[in-house]
Specification:
By secondary structure, this protein is α+β, with helices and mostly antiparallel strands. It has ten helices and eleven strands.
């Protein structure tokens, strides 16, 4: 039977997972991000409105705990259809845009749904899905992003923009925008916005007075190659006793016997 979650994902390329984190965990993650935010090394650089914290799992053990939340890998298994390995984990602390009080600039920004908003995707549709042999007409999407909000995000609060249904539409922004409408993710703190990397998406400016805290975990199959600077170092993996957790963190990468293992279950009890 196809779940409502998967049916929605099949059609739209995204789905909202509600209540992934409780208030205690939300506050703990925000405090940890504040603690490590100063003096961090960032692959993309920081500016006055954005602080990016890369490779979360190497910075505090609490970020590994997120992977062990049952619904995360369960969702990946259902939608991705294969064993999961972590591609990367990072966080953003994003502050309001400098031009938010300039009505003319805000209006220009809202009307400019172009590459100026940074529309992108890391996988073309033909590489981002494959047919589900057990359910005709359905597909699996193995390159998935879990965008986890640690603050409420409403309109203008900087929730992820996505071109709805673009995960099955080929072309650049100009081509995709002819048939797909942009949506802005609105979520409660603790929710996760789950989407395939073949869904065209963007990081908007914050037009309210709210600062947004978020974490992103990206998972791929074991047979996908990862970027070297995102690989979990061997010395770190050697300190992980649990084989399933080591596998999710990258120890399965390139190993065919794990690529197609079934059932895709994970036991983290002895971690």
């Amino acid at each position: 039977m196809i779940s409502e979650m998967r049916q929605h994902f099949e059609e739209h390329g995204w789905v909202r997972l509600e209540g992934v984190l409780d208030r205690k965990k939300i506050n703990a993650y925000k405090s940890t991000l504040d603690r490590i935010a100063s003096g961090i090394w960032s692959l993309t650089g920081n500016d006055m409105t954005t602080t990016r914290i890369d490779t979360l799992i190497l910075r505090d053990d609490s970020f590994i705990e997120f992977i062990k939340i049952p619904c995360i890998l369960e969702a990946y298994t259902e939608i991705g259809g294969i064993a999961a390995t972590l591609k990367n984990s990072w966080a953003f602390i994003k502050r309001p845009a400098d031009f938010r009080h300039n009505a003319e600039e805000v209006q220009k920004y809202k009307q400019d749904m172009s590459y100026k908003k940074g529309w992108h995707r890391g996988s073309a549709p033909k590489w981002g899905m494959y047919e589900d042999e057990c359910h005709p007409g359905m597909h699996h999407f193995p390159y998935l992003n879990f965008f986890v909000f640690l603050t409420d995000v409403g309109p203008g609060d900087g929730g992820t923009w996505a071109m709805d249904k673009s995960h099955k539409v080929h072309g650049d922004y100009a081509e995709v925008s002819k048939s797909c409408e942009p949506i802005e993710a609105t979520c409660r703190a603790g929710d996760a916005f789950l989407f395939t990397e073949s869904l065209m998406h963007s990081a908007p400016h914050i037009l309210t007075e709210n600062t947004r805290y978020s974490m992103t975990y990206t998972f791929i199959p074991p047979f996908y190659c990862n970027m070297r600077h995102y690989e979990v170092p061997e010395w770190f993996l050697q300190n992980i006793r649990n084989d399933d957790l080591r596998g999710v963190l990258g120890a399965w990468r390139g190993k065919l016997d794990q690529c197609y293992r079934k059932p895709y279950t994970y036991n983290f009890e002895d971690v």
